[in-house]
Amino acid sequence: MEGVISVIPNHKLQLHTTRSWDFLGFTKGKVGIPQQGNVIVGLLDTGIWPESDSFNDEGLSPPPSKWKGICQGANFTCNNKIIGARYYNSENVYDVTDFKSPRDSEGHGTHTSSTAAGREVAGASYFGLAEGTARGGLPGARIAMYKVCWSTGCSSADILAAFDDAIADGVDIISVSIGFGILPYFEDPIAIGSFHAMRSGILTSCSAGNGGPWPSTIVNYAPWILTVAASTIDRKFIAQVVLGNGQVYNGLSINSFDLSGKSFPLIWGGDAANYSVGADPDIAKYCSTGFMNSYKVRGTIVFCETLSDGTGILMANGVGTIMADSTITDFAFNYPLPATLISTEDGLKVLDYIRSTENPIATILIGETWKDIMAPYVVSFSSRGPNPITPDILKPDLTAPGVDILAAWSPVAPPSVDNEDTRSVKFNIISGTSMSCPHTSGAAAYVKAAHPNWSPAAIKSALMTTAYIVDSKKHQDLEFAYGSGQINPLQATEPGLVYDASEADYIDFLCKQGYNTTTLKFITGLNSSFCNTTKPGRAWDLNYPSFSVAVEDGQPIKAVFTRTVTNVGLPNSTYTVTGYMPAPVTVIIEPSVLSFSAIGEKKSFTVKVFGPNIAQQPIMSGAIVWSNGFYTVRSPIVVYTILPGSADSSFSMPHKKPDFKGSSFYHKNGILGHK
């Protein structure tokens, strides 16, 4: 039909589910940038709870004149903070918990919105845990919500419609804590929508996915997207177990229940099997719902030999549960009953106590906030690179806080991993790349407020080249875990130099990736003949702020990159470059000195990376750094091997569509993402 650019399957995407800003050095006194009220952050998510204290509009002027959006739906009112709200449901399927409006029944959208741009709220906490002042990255910015996610997921048709509206409405930054899997660019609704946003001068910040720590699980990998991994902050939540013999074990848990130190009978789950449903001790030891004998569980604390959501014990009238599982060691869940997660090794000691004691007893202490001196490090669930479609583009781009984040919550959404949890909270603590994405969205909004005329690529470059360096010794997958490093919002407003890129640059990139004029139209929507004179090739000439050398297994290391930097620092300045890579890799940068005489002046250079034949080589990394004594502009370089033929074009990679259902640690998906 006339006007139809392309037709793609309506994929179902999944959500990727305050100390964090202070941890980044972005303290309360440093966010008072004058133009922040002119910046509009659009979020594609589950909706928003407009009555939350995080979205009050006290002291805010009316929306900027550029705003063209609307406030849609019954029982929902916008203000000078939430200036726009729309909702989309192309399948017209609703759960009993869904609001047919932009109102949030899931909690996720309220959490991400307040993380990016929530107002300051004193005394915020989750049942007293993490108490303090909650705030977003840019508290004075405006929020526009585009509700595309429901209890069943997020439709790609709705996502594309929301991108169109957000662009037309006049947002400045788009935040998308959603992902699907490995798709060609022209079948990925977020890649298509964000391309159109980029064309209109809007940067899209996206979560990297929760498929880690496995390699090539990264999603939202298009080069015009800012892709964000999740890392820890210097805070973790511990709930201790105290046995009747005085032994104390530390467990991970956001435990809001106070047993007042009272001890209860302690049993092993395997001794409470519900034989009437075919359970035996080998099944019951995992404490799954429906397999527990409520007569034996009632009034006890149950030791379970795996991580669960706790509902099996709760529904069998247990007091609490001690779970032993060493697969998760770096983030905590909140549960619907007293619960904590200890190591498998400590679990064996608990089980030995149960079996060797006539009347074993235990208690679970209320949660505590402990200092994590190892932070920051990329959390285990955060998806890793390399880029599964374009190995010449390093992904993720950055990492940001995404572990145990306190932010606003919908009071009608379950606060724990139990969907039937009826408690109501105004703030909740959850983890996911869904939480790291709005941190970077807020940081991008801050840079946009300082530099309203900067392009999406310039803002992205500023965030990447000024990032805090992450300790490589904590990550065997190096930049495939953290990209350029952890965001540094304050420094990003003064990057010195930026790697800028335009729509034409991305089109040239796509042509070299094997797209032609026909297939390129699926992304751009334009009928122009783009690729007639471009030959397929490597992506090394895209003006990207990082460098990826993907070497076919058994071949020599050989890559030549062309880059152009724009001076946004001092008018008269001279930058000298240093480059480093581990042996046997050699890096040569020509020229090694760049002299500028004006703001906006551009200079180009080449980076040559070469070395011997390598085979089955895991990631090796280094960096090139431009410095004028005041500004430091750092870009990582990675070298690794890939299968023969994988670098020829985007179509040579296997487009496997893994089941990413539940890849988020969002509360509705339950423990380990099982819905």
Layout of helices and strands:
Elements lengths: L11 E4 L3 H5 L16 E6 L36 E6 L20 H10 L3 E6 L2 E6 L7 E6 L1 E2 L2 E3 H14 L3 E4 L1 E2 L9 H11 L3 E5 L17 E7 L4 E8 L4 E5 L11 E5 L12 H4 L9 H4 L3 E4 L6 H4 L5 E5 L14 E4 L1 H13 L4 E4 L3 E3 L27 E4 L3 E4 L18 E4 L2 H18 L5 H10 L13 H4 L6 H4 L4 E2 L4 H10 L4 H8 L22 E6 L3 E12 L5 E8 L5 E5 L2 E4 L5 E12 L6 E8 L4 E11 L33
Parallel strand pairs: 2-6, 2-9, 3-6, 9-11, 11-12, 12-21, 15-16, 16-17, 17-18, 25-32
Antiparallel strand pairs: 1-8, 1-10, 4-5, 7-8, 13-14, 13-19, 13-20, 15-19, 22-23, 24-26, 26-30, 27-29, 27-31, 28-30, 31-32
Explain this structure.
The chain is an alpha/beta fold and 675 residues long. The protein has three domains: 12-233 and 376-497, Rossmann fold, CATH 3.40.50.200; 236-370, Glucose Oxidase, domain 1 (3-Layer(bba) Sandwich), CATH 3.50.30; 500-648, Immunoglobulin-like, CATH 2.60.40.2310. The protein contains 14 helices and 32 strands. The strands form seven sheets. Strands 13, 14, 15, 16, 17, 18, 19 and 20 form an eight-stranded mixed beta sheet that branches. It has a seven-stranded parallel beta sheet with strand order 3-6-2-9-11-12-21, sandwiched between helices. Helix 2 packs parallel to helix 9 (433-450) and helix 9 (433-450) crosses helix 10.
